[in-house]
Design goal:
This protein is mostly beta strands and 438 residues long. It is built from two helices and 35 strands. Helices cover 5% and strands 45% of the residues. Strand 24 (323-327) and strand 25 (333-337) form a beta hairpin. It starts with a helix and ends with a strand.
């Protein structure tokens, strides 16, 4: 029979573990369902006057890759540079030598649990580290480096399987590196790859065996594989710089294709589905709204014009209640009507605070009836967004902008929201900041 003191300790530990297990994970880019929605409760209503408490911070290196949080751990990629200079000239590739790394931290304390590192030369523009958030599924971590090294690790950091996509598929490194976050659905890992007949490739997630490959394009682009469901049927969306394509997930068969050509080959933001309508947008004047049919197929409702719609550069927009919220490539947070693309409002308040600056970025995450915005100045913003306008509630700087772009200092990586905390990184540190209500 347990003594009272031991019984109380057992109850405390059990409740603590249960509370931790019930809290949401963020196991991949854009969250558990890749929709930019945080379905957590027990959060603060407003930021405290004394500021949000920093639970811990840990040292990391260069990287655009956001963290993933799963099973009480934080996984993030970085780059440890040994030679070369980061110039961030959009038209010129930097030449660096160093190591890409996968780091695993304890989510509660920030303790470094393990790291997996490998030598990796960089020949990419904006060479400040890996781009892809790790994808965590069924006890495995999938990472994709800036030069196309695809690695599957177990939770101890041991390699299960790996592939060099450039060597295996003749895939060229895009100007700004491999940047499309791998997608796991069921038993399959889907990747944007490139090369002859292999823009999209499906792998067995446990063995790395190729299941199918498909599509030809001059460039593979940067848009993550996106799974949607319409009329009771799943479709895998692959947007490369020539067209938006729907594939049969099991075979790679092309179901439908619509031309969609962003400037500079910058197909980046993931297409978003609301009901039967699918919106996709990219740099400059590339935007389209599609009405999905049951065959399956897609009919064009409208295409964007320079003064309408939203043209997403770095961040994926959010659709709800008949409107689009997104960061326009001009550097404004913008709201537009889904029905015809008419802009309802634009503001620089959450981006640059003054005149628009090209490619200024805000990553949007919906939580209950409000939004959490992370901008490229390193600010976390609590705001209300509606068709009527932008209402800022609170703001706190989490990280210094340690990178630079278009003549100004920036931090650009999508944060993770998990365990009632926000996890964010720059090129020097990873921070965990509490958003839990007392």
């Amino acid at each position: 029979m347990l003594r009272p003191a031991r019984l109380l300790l057992l109850i405390y530990v059990t409740l603590t573990i249960s509370s931790w297990a019930m809290a949401d994970d963020w196991p991949q880019w854009m969250g558990p369902q890749r929709d930019g929605v945080w379905r957590e409760d027990g959060l603060i209503e407003r930021f405290p006057a004394e500021g949000l408490p920093v639970k811990w911070q840990a040292e990391v290196g260069y990287g655009y890759a956001g963290p993933a949080v799963a099973g009480g751990r934080v996984y993030v990629m970085d780059y440890e540079k040994t030679s070369g200079k980061i110039g961030n000239n959009p038209g010129k590739r930097d030449e660096l030598e160093g190591k890409e790394r996968v780091l695993a931290f304890d989510a509660a304390t920030g303790e470094l649990l393990w790291k997996h590192a490998y030598d990796q030369s960089y020949r990419v523009s904006y060479a400040g580290g890996p781009r892809c958030t790790p994808t965590v599924a069924d006890g495995k971590i999938y990472t994709l480096g800036a030069e196309g090294r695809l690695v599957c690790l177990d939770t101890s950091g041991d390699v299960v399987w790996q592939k060099d996509l450039k060597k295996t598929y003749g895939a060229p490194t895009p100007q700004w590196g491999f940047a499309a976050h791998p997608l796991v659905d069921g038993q399959t890992l889907y990747c944007l790859v490139g090369g002859p007949g292999s823009v999209a490739v499906a792998f067995d997630k446990d063995t790395g065996e190729e299941l199918w490959k498909t599509l030809d394009a001059k460039d593979q682009g940067y848009c993550p594989p996106t799974m949607i469901e319409h009329a009771g049927r799943k479709q895998l969306l692959i947007w490369h710089p020539q067209s938006l394509n729907s594939l049969e997930p099991a075979t790679g068969e092309v179901l439908w294709s619509v031309p969609l050509k962003p400037d500079f080959g910058m197909s980046i933001a993931a297409p978003r589905l609301l009901g039967s309508q699918l919106f996709a947008s990219g740099v400059r004047s590339s935007a389209v709204l599609l009405e999905l049919t049951d065959e399956p197929g897609a009919e064009i409702v409208w295409r964007g014009e320079p003064k309408t719609a939203i043209y997403s550069a770095n961040a994926t927009p959010i659709l709800e209640d008949g409107v689009i919220y997104g960061c326009n490539n001009s550097g404004t947070l913008t709201c537009a009507k889904l029905s015809d693309g008419e802009r309802l409002w634009e503001t620089t308040d959450p981006t640059t605070g003054d005149r628009p600056k090209g490619y200024a970025t805000v990553f949007l995450v919906k939580q209950a009836d409000r939004f959490l915005l992370f901008n490229d100045s390193g600010d976390l913003i609590l705001a209300k967004l509606s068709p009527e306008g932008y209402e800022e509630l609170d703001r706190q700087n989490l990280l210094a902008p340690t990178n630079f772009s278009m003549g100004r200092d920036v931090v650009r990586s999508h944060p993770a929201f998990a365990q009632r905390c926000v996890f964010a990184r720059n090129d020097e540190k990873l921070v965990c900041v509490s958003l839990a209500a007392e």
